[in-house]
Amino acid sequence: MSAAAVVLIIAVVLIVLALVVFLVATILELRKIVAGLDDVIEHVGGIVEKSAPVNEVVTTINEQLDAGVELLEGLLVKKAGLTDAVGLVDGLYPGAAAAGLRAFPESTEIVAPRIGEVYTKGTLTLARLGREAPIAAASPGEGLLRNVEGGSLAARALYPDGRPAVGSESLPGSPVIGAGAPEQYERREDIGAPRKRFPAGRS
Amino acid sequence: MTLWWIGNLVLLLAVFPIVVILLKGVLDAARTITPTVRGIAATAAAGSEDLDAAELLLTTQEQVKQTVAGVAGYGGSLDVILDDEEPR
Fold this sequence. Notes:
The complex is a heterodimer. Among the domains of chain A are: about 10-50; about 55-130, no CATH class. Chain A is about 55% helix and about 0% strand. Chain A is built from 7 helices and no strands. In chain A, helix 2 packs across helix 3 (about 80-90). Helix content of chain B is about 85%, strand content about 0%. The interface between A and B is large, with 51 and 50 residues.
């Protein structure tokens, strides 16, 4: 065998060895990749399975919450009126009037009255609980304006035999004031007139 | 004979290095993919674990239904005991 043939054989063997070594290493790496991708597919399948009902459930929850919001907004507007309702909401959550009430798109155009600054929380509700609710003077430092336990008894003590009809002797009507009042008083001329000036020499 | 030697030299000095370089490139590329796939698998596993709490949404859904039902009942009561807005 000539030397050239030996060198050729050695070259071919080297090439084949290189092919074997690198291809086997590549095959092992590809197997690792396949195993990793199998894990990925398994976990992604879990994600898909677990997240499948989320959309429906969240949609249902949103629908329920929307219904609750519409109910409360509708009740608030029914009881307080749209303008006062916007004012109340803006009083509790400053700036909320700009967003308006969801079920009442026209509420965004209302200039919110400053109800929250004039009345304490719940005052308007107490006022509407009955025209005779003893709201008394506002006391912003306290949460309750009405004595829940004693308020009813105290009011009942005013009329032990029941509330008489308006206009009866025990419950006279409101006093009439102004031009129709039974007592008319002449207007004093000095009221509103220029102040009298004394002589300059008097001190 | 001279051509044979030239062929041998080409085989050893050109073909063999090129084969080695190409195969090493493929192997290196495959080795860079492996840790990336492992990272994706770990992330997917963490995401899957995070979604275990998604089952609680069913409880939340039921509680929201009950809460809204309670609010509706409370609102109905308020509707009865409170006066409506007086027409201006």
